[in-house]
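User: Could you check the structure of this?
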Amino acid sequence: MGKTELRRTLLKTRQLMSTAEWKQKSYLICQNLFNSSQFNQAKTILAYFSFRQEPDLSLLFTQTSQRLGFPRCVGDSLFWHHWTPNDTVKTGAYGITEPHPEASTIAPEEVDLILIPCVACDSQGYRLGYGGGYYDRMLSSPEWSVKPTIGIVFEFAYLPQLPVEPWDKPLQGVCTEIGLKIQYT
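Assistant: Sure, the predicted structure tokens are below.
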């Protein structure tokens, strides 16, 4: 199955989840992150606002003392901005919630961990995104390629193997409602 068909199938499965199931599995993902040393040792974490029934990490945003950053899509790049639960947000590119452009930016050297939204991940750490290439481009740049990354997916989207392109970069870990998967090198 190609990336496009796989993406469509997995997104449909995700959208068919009941609200209760989505909330429960999202809660378990947050608990698994709270219990990870990588999350707890990080001072600055890049995350995302849930979109199209992605795992909801909002529990992390109100229950952590870490500095949080969220992306804004500008052109074909992601820009990261500091955000706290008291800050307002706006709807940006593709209908995704994002911080206001005036929010302070976060430079790569400040980042300790990146939580990456995924349509799917595989047991080698490769991810299937939405097809826009935003995270692929970011993770390919030298200043971001060395940052610890954890893909966030529901267990049904954690697959043995995904189709991989030459530009795909594996993540260092994957977190589902079942647990934090092996850290890849």
